[in-house]
Amino acid sequence: MKKTLLFLILAGCSLALSAQNSEPYEFKEFKRLPATPVKSQDQTGTCWSFSTTSFLESEVLRLEKGEHNLSEMFTVRNTYRQKCENYVRRLGKAQFSEGGLAHDNLNAVRQYGVMPESIYPGRKDPALPYNHSALAKRLKQMCDEFIALANKGALQDNWLEAIDKALDEEFGPVPVNFTYNNTVFTPTSLRDFLGLNPDDYVNISSFSHHPFWRNFILEVPDNFSNGQFFNMPLSDLLRSLNHSLQQGYTVEWDADVSNPGFGARSGLAVVPEADWAGKTKDQMAATFKYWEQEKLVDQPYRQKQFDRLETQDDHLMHIVGMLNETHSGVYYIVKNSWGEISDLKGYVHVSEAYMRLNTISFTVNKNALPADIRQRMGITGRKLHPEVEKSPNVGAEQGANPGDTAPEGAPANNIRPGASNLDKQKAKPKVMAPSGRHLSKE
Question: What is 27-379+414-427's CATH topology?
Answer without folding.
Answer: Cathepsin B; Chain A (3.90.70)
